[in-house]
Amino acid sequence: MAHRKKLRMYFSAYIVLFSLCVSISAEIVTKKSPDSISEQVDEIFAGADELAAQRKQRSWEYLISLPDKDLATLYAKATEPQQAQPSGINEISAIMLEKIKKDRSGVIEQLLKYGTPLNTQDDNKFSNMYNEFVDKLAALGPSAVPAISSHMGEKYRITGHWALAKKGLFEMGAGAVEPLIDLLENPDQKLRENVTYVLSLLGDTRAKNAFLNALEDEHGAVRKYAIEGLIKLGPEAVGHDKLVAVLIEHLEDSTCIRECITGLEKYGDETAIDSLGVIESFYPARKDFKKLDLRYPARRAIYAILKRAGKSVTEVSRQDYTQKESTYEELFAAAQYPNAAVRSCAISWLGQYKDDQTSLFLIERIKVEQNSEVLDQITRTLRSIIVPPKGTIEPLVSPQIMQKAFDAFRLKTAIASPQETKGRIAVIQGCRDMLFAASLFNLPLKNIEQFKKIVQADISSAPKVRTVSYSAVSSIATISPETGESWTPAEKEKLMQDLTPLLDLPNPNIRLIECLGHIGDKRLTPRLIELLGHEDSNIRRFAAYAIGQIGDSQGLPALKNLALTDPYRYENGVFGVREAAQNAIEQINKLSPSEIKDKIKINRNIN
């Protein structure tokens, strides 16, 4: 009896010990599992990177082995795919042959940027090896989705990781859907975009609500892929009325308009005809209509809807479709239509009418426009009307128009907050453009002091807004005395305090360098001389320009060395940094315009 009691005691102790071991083991596995999966994912991508490097090397070997004629044909197909059809390949290849004779290695380098062409045997070999990495990612299963998806974010934009991750997740299939849906709240907009794209390809009904929610995403590409996803799910999953209503509503979204038209052609009913009719009537015709025009697709969608309704239609092909040019009145109407894409296109084409009437209309649109992309288009169109082309002697519009436009842009800054980056940039650019136009003709402009305050506030704003504000600092610094007062000494000192620390960053913004040059303080020269040795040719070029604007002879030795030795060339062969250095030297030495012209001409020929 005592023996049995002892056995039971030992057995109970064993059970407790075994349970404890299992618990500890489970805890260890739980703790190590995510890291293990993440490490496996990273190893797969590292292997793919190595494979890509091997492929590039093999492609380079293949390209240098090709005869000039074959290389020319390949180059023509890569750089001129539309023209390089079988009928015209010989003609275009002859042009490419001339380029190859001048710079064969340059052509090969450019081809490698377009892709990594190989012979058929090697191409199949590398494709099979690449597909093995796709299969490995897919085999990791749903728990690996977050780690795989992390390679679809902004950090990996210029790598090949996006494509591999998307293929691996698509290959994983249904198991990837729910983990991907969980990632649609991620702050990285590129990751959200790529996740939505994969979900749209998978076409799983579980993603329906995720697609509907994604239609509110601030990033246009996310909305676009959400629309594509809903179209793929179709009316059976989304509901016919709901799907059609969503597609009609998002015809107003310039990012999604083409996809919405395609969806309505497939599933739309007669409730969509009025909206499609406006697009077909008012969407401005473009010369390259295959790429940009939506009139014919809208017409085709209307035909499809009428046919489904059992009504007779007379269809026409794109080739036979008559594109009428929009009248002035039609463009005015389209520029006020609720569809942002229609408004933007109409405003763009109003730029051909370079007169006060059109300018006044666009100025009024600045006051009421809420869409930042359309506001940006208004800015560009007004610039094309008011800022004259080079060589123009007289302004194309009256001075009163410049003042009205300047004030409209300036007042809009109260609505276009720094958080609305694109809209804010548009209105600051508009003010800057009007300053430039008025200064070009020595015309007076009021309220520049208010614009100064806006610029001074925005140089500490979001990065993209800061960049356009730096350019605005330069515009104010260079206006003519007749137009208005430039920065005062006190204002320049305040700008120096705010901006100089940013010049010490490893890669300072080139517009920052430019505007500091226009502030013209010699305390900046030592740091600018350091930047003349920067690895980025743009930074070297702008640093040289800034020293020239400051006019500090302390920079002459470094500028002279740069003007003789800098290796950077533009595509046309001009030594851009050398030219900037030579111009700065001449600016400091106050040479005459004729001497400057001769010096630049000589410098362009330096080898």
Largest sheet entry: none
What is the average of the pLDDT values?
85
Structural class: mainly alpha
Strand content: under 5%
Give unreliable regions as ranges. 20-34, 287-292, 591-607
Tertiary shape? globular
Secondary structure tally: strands = 0
What share of residues is helical? 55-70%
- Multimerization status: single chain
Radius of gyration: 31 Å
- Counting DSSP H or I runs of 4 or more residues, the number of helices is 31
Q: Distance N terminus to C terminus?
A: 106 Å
Secondary-structure topology with pairs:
Layout lengths: L1 H64 L2 H12 L9 H14 L1 H11 L5 H20 L5 H5 L11 H12 L4 H6 L6 H14 L5 H7 L5 H19 L1 H10 L7 H11 L5 H10 L6 H4 L2 H14 L19 H7 L5 H11 L5 H13 L3 H15 L12 H14 L8 H20 L7 H11 L4 H15 L11 H15 L6 H10 L5 H7 L5 H14 L5 H10 L10 H14 L3 H12 L3
Helix pairs in contact: 1-4, 1-5, 2-3, 2-4, 3-4, 5-7, 7-9, 9-11, 10-11, 11-12, 11-13, 12-13, 13-16, 14-16, 17-18, 18-20, 19-20, 19-21, 20-22, 21-22, 22-24, 23-24, 24-26, 25-26, 26-28, 27-28, 28-30, 29-30, 30-31
Describe this structure in words.
- The protein is mostly helical.
- Among the domains are: 32-140, no CATH class; 351-486; 491-607, Leucine-rich Repeat Variant, CATH 1.25.10.10.
- It contains 31 helices and no strands.
- It is globular and about 75 Å long.
Compose a concise summary of this entry.
The chain is an all-alpha fold. The chain has helices spanning 2-65, 68-79, 89-102, 104-114, 120-139, 145-149, 161-172, 177-182, 189-202, 208-214, 220-238, 240-249, 257-267, 273-282, 289-292, 295-308, 328-334, 340-350, 356-368, 372-386, 399-412, 421-440, 448-458, 463-477, 489-503, 510-519, 525-531, 537-550, 556-565, 576-589, 593-604.
